[in-house]
């Protein structure tokens, strides 16, 4: 009976009790710090996780004192990345000056005082390309993590200059990154009641954000529009897609030309995905058969609480969060040090990934000045925002999807095959089981090869508007691990060419 310490990466900051002994009773979380509420413990864990990514946000959340001055730039203005940040290597590409690159804040009308921060990069190809919004997970991590380490236009060099990312998603889309929910990244409020606790709050804010965005950028309102993201965004994305769909139907504001939504290694249907942890761990030899049997038993109560949470909400959701967490603890206790975003890798000491360059970069005086963030600090990942979403965690967002795909909206679920936390197995199961008009045909569709440069880069399955793609040689963050494949995936998908027909040749 040994107490073990876990450190887990963020993006999806799974709540892991920091000290856990295998012999503790199945249902009672150890509380070594004397916190009686799981919220405090979860916030403590979130902090540990943040540090395991080598991030050191100055504050837990961006809630500024009432009466503080707003960041000076409440309306965006164009930022000049090349001049300000010394973009290296414009090699062969078109001149940077011709692209609109923006950063700014929009006020959220249905909040007390929230301001949402975003970056907007016009497509390197054509302004008529689709508009794509990217949402990072956490909950509570800035989308800048993805922007600089996954699919944004630039990478940060060691000397903190920027260089072009050859596989940035802005090569085929007009690309937006927002810091959300409010309190995350550079987004802020002076009223704590603006912090969100559920997907209704999150999706309303994002809908309001999009309304302002298209009002300010009318020429992009006609373009196709896609919602994308990763990890906990497996919750945000169906909620936002559904919110946009209903806003369009009710003619609430500017119509948004939503064509589809894509979720990468997401958490969408917790009941199915928590059941898959044991199966995936066994398949990947992370645990033994006898561990597996124990985990299956632990799942029984986890499942019943998830069901209760989805029926009654409230406290059951918190209990489900705590109880289901035991399953993760059991599995993670077997091989401490495994990187659970990529089971091929180890975490070295506390460190699983190092995203500190982003933080250093965004804290630089000239960068802050160019972004117009005034005195607002950059909160790379907010433990308070994470905490505020505890009761949202076990909610099943899959239920919002059938209406959308039945109406012809395209859905792409993709997953890097070595991610444990939001593994492909759990994702493929809920996608198969989803009750929609094409369910039978989708379920019986064949897996075919997804080819990149003539090589198999993944396996995909498609029927009508629904596509599932298992990405080879990738963990939780597919665009970071397989940048070229991820760009091709996005492009083909938006062009309607990511289908079950195997492509051969060039
Ligand atoms: C620009 O990119 C090319 C090829 O990617 C590389 O060979 C060259 O060293 C880069 N130049 C700079 C200044 O980074
Ligand atoms: C680039 O833009 C043109 C329209 O100007 C479009 O036809 C083409 O498909 C786009 N290419 C990519 C790779 O998105
Ligand atoms: C699937 O959805 C349809 C339409 O909403 C409903 O009538 C049917 O009962 C559902 N089937 C299952 C197995 O849930």
Automatic annotation (TrEMBL):
Q: Which UniProt keywords apply?
A: Carboxypeptidase, Glycoprotein, Hydrolase, Protease, Secreted, Signal
Note whether Methyltransferase occurs among the keywords: no
Instruction: Give the Gene3D superfamilies listed for this entry.
Output: alpha/beta hydrolase
Q: Which domain of life is it from?
A: Eukaryota
The protein's Enzyme Commission number: 3.4.16.-
Indicate where this protein resides in the cell. Answer: Secreted
Protein family membership: Belongs to the peptidase S10 family.
Protein's UniProt name? Carboxypeptidase
UniProt organism field: Camelina sativa
Gene encoding this chain?
Answer: LOC104706599
